[in-house]
TrEMBL record:
Belongs to the glutaredoxin family. Monothiol subfamily. Keywords: 2Fe-2S, Iron, Iron-sulfur, Metal-binding, Redox-active center. SUPFAM superfamilies: Thioredoxin-like (SSF52833). Pfam families: Glutaredoxin. Residues 16-80 form the Glutaredoxin domain. It comes from the Bacteria. This is Glutaredoxin.
Amino acid sequence: METVDKIKQQISENPIIVYMKGSPKLPSCGFSSQVAQVMINCGEQFAFVDILQHPDIRAELPKFANWPTFPQLWVEGELIGGCDIITEMYQKGELQPIIKETADKFRTEEDAE
Ligand SMILES: N[C@@H](CCC(=O)N[C@@H](CS)C(=O)NCC(=O)O)C(=O)O
Ligand code: FES
């Protein structure tokens, strides 16, 4: 599969997904660590891709996203932002409702199946 198609599949199949360096439990960079911590604090499940394990995604996603760096938080197929944006949204209390609403929405859909 083309890398860009893999990315499209990941962001469509995972309503909340973080592209990061390392994993939430063992981040490999301070920026990724910060976003992982914020996401953990939001208290909902989220998917992640360790781009250090996937150099093709590391190379392609910035072009696809039109965003040069990692981490990247994607919600319902849309780029929300990187570390600065996510941290600011969290501090303002703007991120939590987005994450909760998305988690609730997909929880309901899964439960109904
Ligand atoms: N200001 C950025 C910080 C993130 C950043 O600068 N990331 C760099 C260093 S980890 C990056 O992803 N560089 C491209 C790469 O390593 O592929 C943000 O808000 O997310
Ligand atoms: S890996 Fe060096 S700043 Fe992220």
